[in-house]
Specification:
mainly alpha, TerB-like, about 65% helix
């Protein structure tokens, strides 16, 4: 049995939607830096998204909605990935921050806490937190 067959179509769809959100952040300034491209490639591998599908997603970003996870743990894991993408090129520009706000609401976080969530997320990433440390910082 192929390893990817262990996951449901809904699971793979959520991964594609999450990957599309990461691409939106990378493309928010109009270019993808080498660092961002490396992060995108690693993320595609981790989410089991092949090169053809990556190209399809890049060409049709609007076809992939934000698909919020059901649990707080999964939301924070996605927030971690999104925050890392913002800092993949060591620059958090205004376009990325603006998009990040929309994605945070789309992930199901309270809209009145967006600024605090962004601040804490970026601080954790800049401090070099791994995923477990990042998630724990929000507990």
């Amino acid at each position: 049995m192929n390893f990817s067959n262990l996951y449901s179509p809904a699971f793979r769809e959520r991964n594609r939607d999450h990957f599309a959100a990461i691409l939106r952040i990378a493309l928010s300034d109009g270019i993808i830096s080498e660092e961002e491209e490396a992060f995108i490639n690693r993320t595609a591998i981790n989410l089991e998204i092949d090169e053809d599908e990556v190209a399809k997603i890049k060409a049709n970003l609007d076809d992939y909605p934000i698909n919020p996870p059901a649990t707080q743990q999964k939301r924070l894991e996605r927030l971690y990935d999104l925050s890392r993408m913002v800092f993949a090129d060591n620059i958090a520009d205004d376009a990325e921050k603006k998009l990040m706000k929309r994605l945070i609401v789309g992930l199901g976080f309270p809209s009145n806490e967006i600024e605090a969530i962004i601040e804490k997320s970026f601080t954790e990433i800049q401090n070099g937190s791994d995923e477990d440390e990042f998630v724990s910082a929000f507990s």
